[in-house]
Write the structure tokens for this entry.
Amino acid sequence: MNSQKIRKYLLPTLALLVALLGWEAVVRVNHIEPVILPPPSLVLKTLIQDWTVLFHSLLVTLTITLQALFAATIGGTLLALVFARFRAVEQAFFPFAVILQVTPVISIAPLLLVYLSSGGAVLVCSFLVAFFPILSNTALGLSSVDHNLLDLFQMYRASGGKQLLMLRAPAALPYFLGGLRIGGGLALIGAIVAEIAAGSAGQGSGLAFRIIESGYRLNIPRMFAALVLISLTGIFIYLILSAFSYLLLHRWHDSARGRES
Amino acid sequence: MSATLSENVTNAAPTSVAARLVRLEGVCKTFANGTVALTGVDLEVRRGEFLSLLGPSGCGKSTILRLLASLTSATSGWINWREKEHELGFVFQEPTLMPWANVFDNVWLPLRLKGQSRNAARGAVIDALAKVGLSNFAKAFPRELSGGMKMRVSIARALVTRPALLLMDEPFAALDEITRNKLNDDLVALKCELDATVVFVTHSVYESVYLSDRIVVMAPRPGRIVAEIEIPEPLPRDEDFRLSQLYGERCRETSAALHRAMSMEPRSASA
């Protein structure tokens, strides 16, 4: 590992450690009560002590996030394919997708709770926020094909199916993967926001509900522990999707390759 | 040697029907926005010749290629092919490779679209790559190649179907002069080896004189053919020809014809 790579990983790790140590020191020196600001050591201790409860909630949130992301991926991709094939459909329905995207999910959640079970509402909220970036990025990718290549396919009389499979789909892949990475993060945000909305009505057992419940009980260390798990879940989703993207693109796409030095 | 210049189509020596590959007769092309790209174009492409279309930007050179490739249709006039079924190859100004596919798969593309499996096409692809000197790069991805190598892949892809007519739209315009000269030599050698017919669009007088059996000079607004110049020196040509006085004379003559074409007054499309 060369010095640049060591620096790349060492610097953020050191910065994180310094921040945590600083936090610990500030709490201890000033004798701040855990109910105001718990030290990182107490957050870690709580995370271990309450692991059974928190892990169950983590599984609930993670399951909903992944289900929503899966549905958004399938739905967004299929709709993008329909948009690419039928321009009239895109013109008719794209505004609906935009309306759903620009309306804050927190404002839709209470309405969904009227019509759906709390689990269903959380899933739909998470789906709605993850769906749009996948749809819009994939639709953009499918229509951003080199015109000369399209001419070439036309000249060799390629069918629409071959054009889609051999040209539009691979050309759209980097766009789709970009949308997927954004969608992955948003799916988690959507799930958390919807859990908060549902939790406020006394339902749910995801990580967001644990935060609210801990707040009511003034169990601030557990709030932080749940927050840490949410952050780690987001990082996990981002890393998995980034690795997936790298795997598919590193041979040929500039975004997955470093510049030659 | 004779440079003919007129306000209309000039086909100095009418060819026999057998030697004719395709003929454009009175072809006009007006785009949807009203721009008249071509008017009254009569042009014959002869079997086995290297024909260059030379002219300034906007004179309709590329439109003629697109008409021949059936990528657009004429507003009026006829395009008569000697044989109904004709294989075409097209080389664009950019290499236009699929970045996600390696060199082999890029060259395989035309055969794949015709339904040939990788194994069935392997021989033809390897042969085409050998012809452009890229046998060792079959597994490389486009981004790993230089500009000149990418263009060679593009030429191999156009040749892999053994086309009756190879259409080339300023393929070397973006390359440096050294690479360009080398590719010019290789292209002429390939053309002679395969006895291919080539229609080559270029802005370069020097390139057109070096490569062509015949140069058609076009004028813009609207695009039309205004001169035809035969280059009788046999192909392939070499560096000696490039350095010869004769080459200089041909270039001067062609340059003068181009200059006259560019200074022509725009005329109404209906004229």
